[in-house]
Amino acid sequence: MTVITAHPLADTLAAGLAELAIALTPEQQRSLLAYVDLLAKWNKTYSLTAIREPERMVPHHLLDSLAPLPHLAGQPGCRVLDVGSGFGTPGIPLAIARPDWQLFLLDSNHKKTTFLRQAIVDLRLPNVTVLTERVESYRPEAGFQIITSRAFADLGEFVKLTRHLLAPGGEWAALKGVYPYEEIAQLTVDIRVASVDHLAVPGLEAERHLVHLKTENAAA
């Protein structure tokens, strides 16, 4: 892993990426740290996240967003929808790590999407589209191969609100804390759990899981 030393949090980020076995270029690492700097700056005025210290943003926002990456099967050109993106997690870190994906960041909060639009300009992310809409009202021309969320809703509600947005053969990839036994048990019979990945996020003591869901008639 190449370590960039100009930023005070460069070593922390590089060590975390190495632990996750995610290889990013020095330029990608700089972009991730620039995102943290921008978030910390805006957070002073707009209170986008309860975590205010940049050194805590690296594990809680960058590494937590990137930990699912090795478990996501998106091919080049994959359309990924981040529902309830908030201040851009996991969407912006994923967009930086996978410039060959098309990321769509959806949130109904105008304050947050204003930040997201500024972020994609400052970070020069041509593969990101920001949407200020309610997910149930969003009607794009094409569906998404991956629909993800981080702390958006329970699994049943997540599926219900986004089902019309899933492309044929696509999957939901929901970021969760502890293993969501009850939420899984309450899923409707036409939704199946393809797999659940346990994620070990460097610098975080809390549990993390990635739940992959598909429609019952989708290919395995």
Automatic annotation (TrEMBL):
Entry binding sites for S-adenosyl-L-methionine = 84, 135-136, 150
Instruction: Indicate the family of this protein.
Output: Belongs to the methyltransferase superfamily. RNA methyltransferase RsmG family.
Q: Which domain of life is it from?
A: Bacteria
Q: What's the protein called, per UniProt?
A: Ribosomal RNA small subunit methyltransferase G
List the keywords (alphabetical).
Answer: Cytoplasm, Methyltransferase, rRNA processing, S-adenosyl-L-methionine, Transferase
Q: Name one GO cellular component term.
A: cytosol
Q: What is the lineage of its organism?
A: Bacteria, Pseudomonadati, Pseudomonadota, Betaproteobacteria, Neisseriales
Extract the InterPro entries matched here. rRNA_ssu_MeTfrase_G (IPR003682), SAM-dependent_MTases_sf (IPR029063)
Stated role: Specifically methylates the N7 position of guanine in position 527 of 16S rRNA.
